[in-house]
Design a protein that fits this description.
By secondary structure, the protein is an alpha+beta fold. The protein folds into 2 domains: about 110 residues, Homing Intron 3 (I-Ppo) Encoded Endonuclease, Chain A (Alpha-Beta Complex); about 55 residues, no CATH class. Helices cover about 40% and strands about 10% of the residues. It has a two-stranded antiparallel sheet. Helix 1 crosses helix 2 and helix 6 crosses helix 7. The structure holds zinc ion. The site of zinc ion has 7 residues, from loops.
Length: about 190
């Protein structure tokens, strides 16, 4: 018999993949910026045809279930961030107080002030898979990538590079195609 809990966990593992695929780590803040954002204030993710807030889904996947009526707040102030380490549970009034009293150093103030503190144990590995790539490696990947690589000449294919750099194929494709924070870093310091 299948343990229903294991099905739930499997769904969550799949969802964590989507969260990682849809976000970009920002090295200075540690935020995982949701890049598929289509809402003005929060990132959203479609689950079974319904749009849910991406940061709430991240909290549910990586940290704990969210009790009825409870908000998920950001310690980093970036509402598009889905890094579970930057999320904590708060009540609506916490959220309001938080927003009005918060200065730039909010990160140090939280999450201790929250009356409903989140379980801080994160259940799955939360190192973002793009975070292991340095700007140098990104540059290498871009110069070695061969869009015309085929099965009998796989050198430079997304698959081959993915294996070599320990990330997945889609990550390579995104690096090759997308403007990322890494591009900004390279512009500032073109010698890396
Ligand atoms: Zn953040």
């Amino acid at each position: 018999m299948v343990d229903p809990k294991s099905i739930v966990d499997l769904e969550k593992v799949k969802m964590t993949e989507r969260l990682l695929d849809g976000s970009m780590p920002e090295p200075n803040s540690g935020c995982w910026i949701w890049v598929k954002a289509d809402d003005k204030r929060y990132g959203s993710i479609s689950i079974g045809g319904r749009l849910k807030k991406a940061h709430r889904v991240s909290f549910e996947c990586f940290v704990a279930d969210i009790p009825e009526g409870v908000k998920v707040c950001h310690s980093c102030d970036n509402t598009f961030c889905v890094n579970p380490k930057h999320l904590f549970l708060g009540t609506q009034s916490d959220n309001m107080k938080d927003m009005s009293s918060k200065g730039r150093n909010a990160m140090q103030l939280h999450p201790e002030r929250s009356s409903l503190r989140a379980v801080r144990t994160v259940r799955y590995g939360v190192d973002h898979h793009l975070a292991k790539l340095t700007p140098e490696k990104i540059k290498e990947i871009r110069s070695r990538y061969q869009p015309g690589a085929t099965w009998n000449k796989p050198e430079g294919s997304a698959k081959a590079l993915a294996r070599e750099y320990g990330v997945n194929d889609r990550t390579i494709t995104r690096i090759v195609r997308m403007e990322t924070w890494i591009d900004a870093a390279l512009k500032e310091n073109p010698n890396v």
